[in-house]
Amino acid sequence: MPVGMAEANREVKVVVESIKPALKKASEMTQEEWKKFIAETAGSWRGELERPEQGEFETRDQWPWCTCPTRTLWIAYIRREEAALLQRFQQVSPADIAICSVVLAELLYYYFVLLSVVT
């Protein structure tokens, strides 16, 4: 965009558009599209990584209605392995259940990649 004195002091509108087509949301991808996305992006970072001090790891109490470790709670739910867990989820509204994006990514990976190997 050439600018000079004649173009100075003018209001402009800048539009930023990607030259690549937008990626679909993971929930809209087919299994093949998801596998291709993972294959293209996994390990693609080429810079230096610095991991700062992590601090203390929080230890949480075990939920009384679930015998599985918290980190595998969602997998146990998907596999229908814990009767008490399933009953607990049926007692609450889906609108009251929230998961973080990291867990969501892990669940999508589990669903699209790992289950496709099994089925």
Report on the structure:
By secondary structure, the protein is mainly α. The protein is built from four helices and no strands. It is elongated and about 75 Å long.
Q: What's a concise summary of this model?
A:
The chain is mostly helical. It has helices at residues 31-41, 73-79, 83-90, 101-118.
Please specify the SSE layout and strand pairing.
Layout (H helix, E strand, L loop, with lengths): L30 H11 L31 H7 L3 H8 L10 H18 L1
**Could you give the distance between the termini?**
54 Å
- Gross morphology is elongated
Overall number of strands = 0
Instruction: Spell out the helices and strands N to C.
Output: HHHH
Report the helical percentage.
25-40%
Q: Radius of gyration in whole Å, from Cα?
A: 23 Å
Count up the helices.
4
Overall mean pLDDT: 76
Uncertain spans: none
What structural class should be given to the helix and strand makeup?
A: mainly alpha
Major sheet size, sense and barrel closure: none
- Share of residues in strands: under 5%
Task: Provide key terms for this protein.
0% strand, 119 residues, elongated, single chain
